[in-house]
Specification:
- This protein is an all-beta fold and 109 residues long.
- It is 0% helix and 54% strand.
- The chain has no helices and 11 strands.
Length: 109
């Protein structure tokens, strides 16, 4: 089973400088990434329609850091997140069951 965990999964609406730390695992073994050329982090609304993607960088430990910049126009609420990785044998989706969640909370207007 593939899992995806997100550290720092809550932020204010409009915060474009936040970084989410993503850790993916296959059958309990943490995956180490060396580049992001074959990785897409998809963000979906409550209907699981894709509303954004997150730009990613590789962290020193091989985990991914995803930028909140592409979430700036989304309203407050909870959003589903999936990491799609293209490999030599096909596409691997993290998590394999359900989705990881990020939460946008209102800012003062």
């Amino acid at each position: 089973m593939n899992t995806l965990s997100i550290e720092y999964d809550t932020l204010k609406c409009g915060d474009t400088s936040h970084g989410f730390i993503l850790s993916a695992a296959q059958d309990g073994v943490t995956q180490t990434f060396t580049d992001t050329s074959q990785v897409v982090v998809k963000v979906g609304n409550s209907s699981l329609m894709q509303v954004a993607t997150l730009d990613t960088l590789v962290n020193e430990d091989g985990s991914l850091i995803a930028s909140s910049a592409n979430l700036s126009k989304l309203p407050a609420g909870q959003y589903s997140v999936e990491l799609w990785q293209t490999t030599d044998t096909g596409v691997v989706v993290y998590p394999s069951n359900g989705q990881a969640i990020i939460t946008l909370i209102p800012s003062i207007n």
